[in-house]
Design goal:
2 domains; disordered C terminus; Surface presentation of antigens (SPOA)
């Protein structure tokens, strides 16, 4: 299942969009539903907007991040589509299991570091990061992960933690080659530099989150309508009349005694006078009471149950 927008031409296009029928892969029979894709789309779009604002303020260069597509692939397919070298951060999403990968092109990373050091950006050399540049990159990625947490807060409360940073995806063994993963591709512009940022989430990590009822995304109007319906339902149930019975302790009688009952016969109830009556609804006891009257009407006075009385007498909480 893929949700995609038009891919710009040039170096930000990581894969060529296929045309015609899509082959069915029997290795991954479970696919994301349209509802799941829509939920992820909302989360990643929220991340993209806040990440673009973060990059603009942090780098002091006009930046923009926008969602291109959400795809379900195998891990080996994802790795095969990455450039070499590239920058890959290995991230854990506590309390969710698995390892998430966030990938940025080396040119975009070098441009970002140049802006953080007060440079103008522009063409950058392709080389490993120095001991001075690596902490700057880690700090930037950790701030971006904070925006990822914000984007997913309507789905699950996660705490992204950056572990390691790698340069070559071929040497990265974060997942087995055939493992299903969900790939979010985001067009990232930092000044004049453009690239595709990808976020790789294990399928088994995100599917349980998407399958929860709580992951249904509601607009403010829908949430207000749901709360109003809940209030009306609660108010209606609170005012609904129900049948309440006050009953003595039941007794056992033979069938022929019941058949032979006549007006005027006396049936001993066997209910101790010291024992209160049971107040029931639908045969469920919810209170106890003693018989009495209120004016010309029979009534009962609700009293503490036997358990409550024994608890108070013993002084236990």
């Amino acid at each position: 299942m893929t949700v995609s927008a038009a891919r710009p031409s040039g170096k930000i296009s990581r894969r060529s969009p296929g045309s015609g029928p899509t082959p069915y892969d029997f290795r991954r029979p479970i696919k994301l539903s349209r509802e799941h894709v829509r939920t992820l789309q909302i989360a990643f779009e929220t991340y993209a907007r806040s990440c673009g604002t973060l990059l603009t303020t942090r780098l002091r260069a006009v930046s923009n991040v926008s969602l291109i597509s959400i795809e379900q692939l195998n891990y080996d397919e994802y790795v095969a589509g990455l450039a070499n070298p590239t920058i890959i951060g290995q991230v854990t999403l506590d309390p969710l299991p698995g390892t998430v990968l966030i990938e940025l092109s080396q040119s975009a990373v070098m441009t970002a570091i140049d802006h953080m050091l007060g440079g103008p950006g522009g063409t950058q050399p392709e080389r490993p990061l120095t001991e001075v540049e690596m902490p700057l990159l880690r700090s930037l990625i950790e701030r971006m992960l904070g925006e990822l947490r914000y984007g997913f807060e309507t789905l699950v409360d996660i705490k992204p933690i950056l572990k390691d940073i790698e340069y070559n995806a071929q040497f990265l063994r974060a997942h087995a080659p055939g493992d299903a993963v969900v790939i979010a591709s985001l067009e990232t512009k930092i000044g004049a530099e453009e690239c595709v940022q990808t976020i790789c989430v294990p399928f088994n990590t995100i599917l349980p989150v998407l399958s929860r009822e709580e992951t249904i995304i509601l607009s403010p109007a829908e949430r207000q309508a749901r709360d109003r319906a809940l209030h009306n339902l609660t108010a209606g149930l609170s005012a609904a009349p129900i049948d309440v019975a006050v009953r003595f302790h039941p007794i056992r009688m033979r069938t022929d005694d019941i058949v032979d009952l006549r007006p005027g016969d006396v049936v001993p109830l066997g209910h101790p006078t010291s024992r209160p009556l049971e107040v029931t609804v639908n045969d469920r006891v919810f209170a106890h009471a003693v018989p009495g009257n209120q004016g010309a009407r029979l009534a009962c006075l609700v009293v503490p149950s036997t358990n409550e009385s024994s608890t108070k007498e013993s002084g236990r909480p």
